[in-house]
Amino acid sequence: MVFAITLHEAAHGYVARLLGDNTAYMMGRVSFNPMRHIDPFGTIVIPLVLYFLTSGAFLFGYAKPVPVTFRNLRNPRWGSLWVALAGPGCNFVQALIWGFVSIGLAALAIDEPFFTRMAGAGVGVNLVLAVLNLFPLPPLDGGRVLAALLPPKQSIALSRLEPYGFFIVLALVATGLLTKLWLRPLVSAGYAVVTAILTPFASLF
C-alpha cells in the first residue's frame, strides 16, 4: 500500500509540473521515496482505524497531499482535472503491472505463495485506491474532478465540503454504504477491465 500511494502522489506532482506548476517538484515531492509522502494520520492511523472498524475487510490509507498551486497551471480548471485524475490513473497502471507480474509468475511456473499473493494484492490494493479516490467528494480526487466539471457556483459549493470530506467517507465506510454502493461494483468493473486487457497476453503462455 505504501508503494501504491507513493506513486499515486508522485503522479499528481509530475502531471502538475507538465501542466505548468512546479510547486511539488520544487518541494521534492515528485519522488519515489515513500518517506517524502508518508502522513502519520493517513498512512498509519486511518488504516488501523479502518482495520478495526471493518475487521480487516477494508483497508485504506493516504499520503501527504502533493502541493499544487492551481493558479500556476496553464489552464487552472482543466489542468486541475488532469492533475486529479493522474493519481487514480497511476493506480490503475500499477494494477496492470501487477497483473503482468502474475502472468510472468505463471509462465515461469513459480507458485511460491508469497509472490503470487503479493501480485494479487498489488492488483487489488491499486484498484481499491483508484476507485476510492474517484469518489466525488473533496478532498478526494473524484471531488476535484467533479469540481472542475461543475459550473463555478456549484463548484464553489462542493469545495466547501472539503474540510469534512474524509470524515464523511469514514462514516460511509463504517456504515457499509461506500463499500456496497461504490467500491464493490466499481472495483469489480476494474477487475473486469484488467482481465480483458491481460487475457490476450496470458493466452500466449
Folded structure, characterized:
The mean pLDDT is 92. Helix content is 69%, strand content 0%. It is globular, with a radius of gyration of 18 Å. The protein is mainly alpha-helical. It has 9 helices and no strands. It has one domain. Helix 4 packs antiparallel against helix 5, helix 4 packs across helix 6 and helix 4 packs across helix 9.
Annotate the secondary structure layout:
Elements: H1 2-18, H2 23-26, H3 40-53, H4 76-107, H5 113-133, H6 141-149, H7 152-159, H8 165-175, H9 177-202
Helix pairs in contact: 1-4, 4-5, 4-6, 4-9, 5-9, 6-7
How would you summarize this macromolecular structure in one to three sentences?
By secondary structure, the chain is mainly alpha-helical. It is about 70% helix and about 0% strand. The protein has one domain (about 1-200).
| Helical residue percent band | 55-70%
Order of helices and strands: HHHHHHHHH
How many structural units, i.e. domains?
Answer: 1
Radius of gyration: 18 Å
Summed over residues and divided by their number, the pLDDT gives a mean of 92
Approximate shape = globular
Number of discrete helical segments: 9
Separation, N- and C-terminal Cα atoms: 29 Å
The percent range for strand residues is under 5%
Q: What can be said about the biggest beta sheet? A: none
**What class would the helix/strand composition place it in?**
mainly alpha
Low-confidence stretches: none
Total count of strands: 0
Descriptors:
single chain; 205 residues; mainly alpha; globular
